[in-house]
Amino acid sequence: MADTPDHAPPPLVTPLNAAHRALGARMVPFAGYDMPVQYSGILAEHLHTRASAGLFDVSHMGQAFLVGPDHASTARFLESLVPADILHLRPGAQRYSQFLSPDGGTLDDLMIHRPHNPDDDGTLMLVVNAARKDHDFDLIRRHLPADIRLDIARDRALLALQGPKAVDVLVRLGADVADWTFMTAGPIRIGTLDAHASRSGYTGEDGFEISVHDTRAADLWSLLLAAPEVLPVGLGARDSLRLEAGLCLYGHDLDETTSPVEAGLAWSIQPRRRLEGGFPGAERIQFEIANGPARRRVGLKPEGRQPAREGTEIRDLSGRHLGTVTSGGFGPTVGGPIAMGYVAAASAAPGTKVVLMVRGRELAAEIVPLPFVPANFVRRPA
Amino acid sequence: MTVCFTEDHEWISVEGETAVVGITNYAQAQLGDVVFVELPDVGRTLAKGDEAAVVESVKAASEVFAPVSGTVAAVNAALATAPETVNAAPEGEGWFVKITLSDPSELDGLMDRAAYDAFVAAL
User: Fold this and answer.
1) Beta carbons of B35 and A240 less than 8 Å apart
2) Do the strands A53-57 and A230-232 form a parallel or antiparallel pair, or are they unpaired?
3) For residue B84, what is the domain's CATH number?
4) What value of ipTM does the predicted structure carry?
5) Most buried in the list A291, A310, B20, B49, measured by CB within 10 Å?
6) What is the DSSP string of A154-180?
7) What is the total count of domains within chain B?
8) Is residue B119 included in any domain, yes or no?
C-alpha cells in the first residue's frame, strides 16, 4: 500500500497491464513496473497453483540473447561471468546460475538456455531479474568480446503457467511438450501462437515459462486463462509459492555479500567449474566448497502461527546473535509461518532450536530442511 | 450504542465507558488474507496512537493504533485460532479489543458511518 513518491518516474507496464486491470487485479509498484499483486486473493491463488494451474505475468523480467560465432565461444564468454558449466549445456536444455562479483558475492541469479536448433548454434537465451536487468546487461556489455553481441529482447513478454495441470493445458492446446523434462526448453506452438517455452518456474511445481512476442501476449494470456484449470496469480502468491519451495529471491535471500555456496546453491556449480575456476570470485567459492562457508541459508519454522518477517534477528537459546531472516511469511500449503535466513554454519543443522526476535519478543523456532513443500518436477531419468 | 470510524480504517463501537475496536471491511480487503493477529495484554494501558495490535496478512505485517486512550478490558481470543474471521466478519466477530475509555471526549473528533463511507469513496 506504499505510495509512489511524486518525483518517481511513471511506472513501466507490461503488455498485459490492461488484462490485469480488466480482471480487477490489485496493482502495486514492483521493480519499476505496475504489477498485479493479487486477483482473487493470495491464499486462494497459491492453493490453486499447487492443486491445478496458475497463470503469472512475469514480463517485467529481463530477456536477452547472447549471439556469438559458435557455442564454445559464447559459452566461454558467459562462463567468465557465471560459475555454471555452460560449455557442456546440452542443446535444448536450460541451466540456473548466478552473476558473481570479483569477491564471490552474488550480483543476480538467472536462467540460461541453449537452443536446440543447430541454426542457432552460438546463441544463448538469458532470463534475469526485473530489478537487476539494467545492471546485468551493463555488466555483460562491459565484458563483451568483439565477436559476441547482446540482443535485449524488449519486445518479448513472459508468462508462467505453473502447477500440476499446466502440462495438460498446453498439450490440449497443441503444444508438443508432454515428453519434456524439467529444464527442457525450445520453440512451441500453442493454438496458432508461436512461442518459446521452458519447463521450469519459480513455484516448486511442474510448469512452464513461455516467452512470446509482446504483440501476441494478450492473445496467449486469454487463451491460457480460458482453460478451466487456470486462474490468474499475482506477485503475492508468487512470493509465497517460491518461499515454500525454498527458492531464493534476489535482493532478499541473495545479494552482493552472499556467495552461492552460503546460499546452498553449490549444486548449480558443476564439477569442471569447481575444479578449473575461471569465474569471478572463484577463490572464495572454491575455498567455501572445500572448507564449508562461515554461514548458511536455512529454513526456519516458527512455533505457533505468528510469522517472522525479513530483517528479524535470529538468536541461539543463550541469546547470542546467529543471523537474520531474509524472507519470511505465511506458507498457505504448509498452513503456518515459514521463513528463510542465514545463520552461523555451526548452528545450521536441521533440528537446531533458535529464537526469533519479533517486535522485541522472543518467538521460538527450529531450523528445518528446505524446501518446506517437496518439489513436483518432472525429472529426466538418470 | 454509537459506532465511529478513524482515517486509519478502525471502527469503535461505544457502549457506556467501553469501546470495542476492530478494523473496517475496507481495511481487511486492503490487507488480504489475515493469518495472524497479535493482540495486547489485558490490563495494558493504551494512549491514543499507541500500537494496539499487529495484523499479519500473507504478505505483510500492519500495525493497528489505539484510536482512543484507555485500558484493555478484553481481547478477542478466538482470533488466535481463527484469524480469518477478520476477513469474514471484520465489523462483527472479527473485533480486536475492548477498551475501557479514559477520555470519552476523544470520540468527538471521529467520523460517523456516513462520513467514513464518504472518506473511503474518495480514496
Assistant:
1) no
2) parallel
3) 2.40.50.100
4) 0.89
5) B20
6) TTEEEEEEESTTHHHHHHHTT---TTP
7) 1
8) no
pLDDT digits (tens, 9 = 90+) for A314-372: 999 999 999 999 999 999 999 999 999 999 999 999 999 999 999 999 999 999 999 99
Inter-chain CB proximity B35 and A359 less than 8 Å: no
Contact of B111 with B26, CB cutoff 8 Å: no
Question: Does residue A306 sit at the B interface (CB-CB below 8 Å)?
Answer: yes
Q: Tell me the three cell numbers of residue A165.
A: 495441470
Cell of A323: 543471523
Within a domain: B48:
yes
Q: Determine the residue of chain A that is closest to B87 in CA distance.
A: A41
Which of residues 336 through 365 in chain A touch B, CB cutoff 8 A? Answer: 337, 359
Q: Is B121 on the interface with A (CB under 8 A)?
A: no
From B30, B36, B59, residue closest to A305, measured CB to CB: B36
Q: Do A37 and B59 touch (CB under 8 A)?
A: yes
Beta bridge partners of A177: none
Per the structure, the complete domain to which residue B54 belongs is given by: 2-110
Q: Which three cell numbers stand for residue A251?
A: 535482493
- Residue of A42, A244, A312, A327 to mutate, testing the B interface (most B Cβ within 10 Å of its Cβ): A42
pLDDT surpasses 70 at A5: no
Kindly list the structural domains of chain A, giving each domain's residue range(s) and its CATH number in brackets, ordered by start.
Answer: 1-293 (3.30.1360.120), 294-368 (2.40.30.110)
- DSSP string over A272-309: HHHHH--STTHHHHHHHHHH--SEEEEEEEESSS----
Q: What is the pLDDT of residues B74-112, one digit of tens each?
A: 999 999 999 999 999 999 999 999 999 999 999 998 999
Within a domain: residue B122? no
Spatial distance between the Cα atoms of A323 and A295, rounded to a whole number of angstroms: 8
Helices (H), strands (E): how many in chain B? 3, 9
